[in-house]
Please model this.
Amino acid sequence: MPLDLTDLYRRVARVIPPAEWALFTPDIAAIQKLKRERNAVILAHNYQTPEIFHGVADIVGDSLALAREAMRVDADVIVLAGVHFMAETAKLLNPSKTVLIPDTRAGCSLADSITPADIALLRQRYPGVPVVAYVNTSAAVKAASDICCTSGNAKKIVESLGVPEVIMLPDEYLAQNIAAQTKVKVISWAGHCEVHERFTPQEIINLRAAHPGLIVLAHPECPPDVVAQADFAGSTAAMSDYVGREKPARVVLITECSMSDNVAAMHPATDFIRPCNLCPHMKRITLSNIRECLETMQTEVVIDPALIAPARLSVERMLAVS
Ligand code: 13P
Ligand code: SF4
Model:
């Protein structure tokens, strides 16, 4: 049934001014129609802008939820409103579907920081030590690893292996933050998220001074000294759940910008303080290129057939544990 755009606007009125909404509605209406015609669903990451997240997405969530849901999609077409590794993961888990990404340049500084050749060198240096790859990696890196993890299950995955030592890559800070919570020795790689590495402990100290009673939630891709200043650290979904559960009067999400807009739209009683670090890759996805991708059925995500089975195995091992 076509969605009433006035009803839809009520969901986002807190974060999208009426004049801006008027500019979005032609694309939203066209996308809703194209989804029916193409038998398509849109999976959107929590960092997508609110007109995408609340306006056209069928399934939203963190990387773990998007992977799980991609596997269950029954529609013919999946449009991944997120970055390239997320679209690859969806294709790995549901290979018979047409998976489209609206802009192939939507990359990730973490995924770009490591190659299969780097993993081969690490395996030589640490023989027999299992390699845990963050999902923020290419299919080739997943294929060269033993198991994947996300920010939502990293500790569980590391401990599930029953070994004293693991290599966890490519996010150095996520590895250090997990190492602080487990007895397993974690060998890290020097990759960083260009959004989360910019936060500093002083920024949080300043925010607390300026906003008494502030609750600080941080993503574990932040440096450990930033996480140490937070009241809670967790995946994007865990941060959103925290706000829903604890209903803080005033909160700051130490993560990508759009996340605060999306969560603020759902929790009108909470005051959101919004320092803004944008992910330029996530922001490559727009309503207009989602519309265009459904019109042209471009660009389809294709994975080297030789990588599919080993990369999928790493993701499936993760899903079996979590
Ligand atoms: P999660 O949504 O899995 O916490 O990941 C954050 C992220 O940076 C994805 O690019
Ligand atoms: Fe990659 Fe960081 Fe952007 Fe997520 S926020 S896609 S980890 S660069």
User: Anything to note?
Assistant: The two ends are 35 Å apart (CA to CA). Residues 134 and 149 are 5 Å apart (CA to CA). The chain has a mean pLDDT of 97. The chain has three domains: 5-107+282-296, 111-193, 196-273.
